[in-house]
């Protein structure tokens, strides 16, 4: 006797399809990455995204080339656990470092 699959109601199919497309990573804000992560994490809640792997790749999709170059090693070889947190921490730390360097260089330029 052939195995039959339980029928899924159209509303359940629609909901699962919507959850797959409900999240689109915002453009990354280099000038305020911490605020950007607040927005991203709010969107994760709204879209019911709790999977670490999904969060990791959603953030990756929204990063620009400047930031991607700072996190290349994590993207190429993500940690097996807490990959999203590792990526977020690196982005925030890299951003603070880059901003500090820019402020330092600006102060040197002003003195010249």
From TrEMBL:
Superkingdom of the source species: Eukaryota
Residue intervals of the DUF7041 domain: 26-95
Stored PANTHER family: ENDONUCLEASE, RNA-DIRECTED DNA POLYMERASE
Listed name of the protein: DUF7041 domain-containing protein
Species of origin: Araneus ventricosus
């Amino acid at each position: 006797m052939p195995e039959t699959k339980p029928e899924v109601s159209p509303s359940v199919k629609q909901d699962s399809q919507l959850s797959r497309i409900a999240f689109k990573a915002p453009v990354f804000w280099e000038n305020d990455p911490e605020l950007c992560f607040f927005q991203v994490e709010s969107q994760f809640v709204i879209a019911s995204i709790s999977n670490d792997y999904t969060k990791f790749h959603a953030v990756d999709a929204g990063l620009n080339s400047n930031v991607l170059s700072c996190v290349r090693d994590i993207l190429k070889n993500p940690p097996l656990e807490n990959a999203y947190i590792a990526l977020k921490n690196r982005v925030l730390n890299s951003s603070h470092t880059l901003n500090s360097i820019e402020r330092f260089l600006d102060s040197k330029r002003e003195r010249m």
